[in-house]
Amino acid sequence: MDDIYNLPITQRVATTTQDIEKANNADEHLRNTTVKSLTWSGVTVSVRDRSTKQPKKIVDNVEGIVRSGELCALMGPSGCGKTTLLNVLAQRPTHAPSVSANVLVNGVRLSTTLFRTITCFVEQEDAFIGSLNIKETLNFSSRLATSSIPAHERLKRIDALISDFGLSEQAGTIVGTPIRKGISGGQKRRLGVASQLITSPKILFLDEPTSGLDSAASWEVVKYLSVIAHRHHLIIICSIHQPSTATFNLFDRLMLLSGGQMYYFGTVIDSLLYFESMGLSIPTHVNPAEFLIDALNVDFARDKALANRRIHELQSGWTMSQQADEMSHLRLATEQQQSGGMEISLDEHPNLLSIIITLLHRSFIKSYRDVVVYGIRVVMYTGLAIMMGTVWVRLSPDQVSIQPFINAIFFGSAFMSFMAVAYVPAFIEDTQQYIKEHRNGLYGPAALIISNFLIGLPYLFFISIIFSVISYWLINFQPTAQAFFIWVMWLFLDLICAESLVVFMTCLFPSFVVSLALVAFANGLWMCVGGFMVPPTVLNPFYTYVFHYWDYQKYVFQGMMVNEFGHRVYSCGKDCLCMYQSDLADRCQIAGQAVLDQFGYNDHIAMNVGIMISIIAGYRLASWLVLRLRGGV
After folding, report:
1. Which 3 state secondary structure label does DSSP give 500?
2. CB atoms inside a 10 Å sphere around CB 249
3. Domain ranges in the chain?
4. Which residue among 334, 375, 395, 616 has its CA within the 20 to 30 Å range from the CA of 461?
């Protein structure tokens, strides 16, 4: 690649053409034979100006056309509206109060569902499961997109894309996690494009695909975009900020924006001639892309008035130009010629069960490769079990041990659920991946919530067993097999509830700091009103009726208390001064039920388990509802 980069521009273009001619037919499925054009007109996006409180247009009456086999660049100074325009063209949320646009495919306005099936969007900061390697990433993207491809054909497509994007040597390398280094930034950008192409889109949108890359890596990424656009007759539109000269010359079409208005739309070659006709001759040895963007940027001009007059002249010049008139006529003619519609042959989309199985498979790989998911929590819970077992070591069945037993029950159940905050970063990664895949029409919130719930069950049960085996017998809780497995059950339900709370909070606020703070606060609240800090018999009515009855820690604490004290007898000591009065006082003993009476607890295990299951279902249903209401997020 470095040798190619050092060639003159004309030879680089020739090299790109040779790449197209030499391409094999392994990726023939990418060929677009149905979508001939994407046209847009009257694109206007308005927001409310914070200072004047008046409507402000960030995109103002923009129009254009890109035909199959063309790579189009949206360029302009920062804040010119290119990303907003890209989102409108891709039918993605702009969060603007007023959006109007007429976006047509082959002269026809498509429904959002159909539009998403033929398009894909590559984010500026693409989301990946960092513990998957390149080949696995493409494989799961393909499986989520279609179920009608035989396994051997799917692998052929994946291998062809990996080869086309120059990733063959890194096919088995993971994308990268905070702990394990993976592929480079340039390779990740190419993977982002490849992971969308594997779904066989007809139109591809990219937001700043070269952001953060050096000139060589940027040229490499755009070169691949140019190759696949020409080879497969795709329509590719990307916003880009100040590309190098070599990268700039790879684009077929260019739209220049400033202040939300159009200043040019046409071929890259004609752009230089057009601006020369407007009195802007590009000096020798100057990057034309940089020159054009600087010419349209008034933010850093010394003479703002002069710069504004000049920019107004350029905009008026474009509006009145022959090029603008020809572009409008071409757009209208194309829309009229192709307005008869189109027939799109789509691969069969997998059903909900297939998607859940695919997500489970992907989550399983992530769960054992990425220690952040469950590995760190296993270590944390094991350490907590050892600490508890050695602090509350071998408590005797005497009345002096009753309060330590109660403290151990509270500490074990409360901190086990509190430490579920460690799951926040792992689920945030899942949420970001879901947002990308949902926006590209692959699956909905139900598949995410169900698969996430199922993948966690065996790991949480394993944690419950490990913690209980270590701590239960060291502390000397009621030493029967039945009591031990009831303890495991309550701990298991506790962890499922805690993880469901994390899922809900992260769906509500997909920000690491915010969701972490909210989960920690919620667990702190549950500790306060669960029945240990203040017994339910004396807890004030507000917290009793607003929080106490749906506090899952309350039912875990109550269940563990009943498990320990419901059928156990404690000695009052040599002096027979019993701390709790019971029917066994004359024998110098305390019936454990006397302790439960102080808290107002009874043995309603079936009802409490049912309530716990309802709370878990409630958190999961609320998480689904949040994602459902947020739509494209």
Report:
1. helix
2. 19
3. 2-124+201-337, 352-630
4. 395
Which residue has tokens 């009753």? Answer: 402
The residue length of the chain stands at 633
CB within 8 A of 528, min separation 6: which ones? 534, 543
* Mean pLDDT of the region 512-539: 90
Q: Do 334 and 67 contact (CB within 8 A), yes or no? A: yes
Secondary structure class of 238 (helix, strand, coil): strand
Residue 363 to residue 266: CA distance in whole angstroms? 45
Global pTM value: 0.84
Contacts of 437 (CB under 8 A, 6+ apart): 144, 443
- The correct answer on CATH 3.40.50.300 for the domain covering 2-124+201-337 is yes
How many Å apart are CA 490 and CA 552, to the nearest integer? 10
CB count in 10 Å sphere of residue 443:
22
Q: Residue 500 and residue 568: Cα distance in Å, rounded?
A: 33
* Residues 303-341 as b or e (16 or more Cβ within 10 Å = b): eeeebeebbeebbebbeebebbeebeebbeebbeebeee
R_g (Cα) of the chain, nearest Å: 32
Select from 230, 229, 222, 223 the least CA-distant residue to 204: 229
Residue 73's DSSP bridge partners are 238, 254
| Nearest residue to 529 (alpha-carbon basis) of 542, 543, 541, 550 | 543
Task: Give dist(CA 344, CA 114) in Å, integer.
Answer: 9
For 100-122, what is the mean pLDDT?
Answer: 88
427-468 pLDDT, tens digit per residue, is 999 999 998 889 888 899 999 999 999 999 999 999 999 999
DSSP 44: E
Q: What is the pLDDT of residue 26?
A: 52
| CA-closest candidate to residue 28, choices 153, 175, 141 | 153
Q: Where are the beta strands (DSSP E) in 505-605?
A: 569-571, 589-591
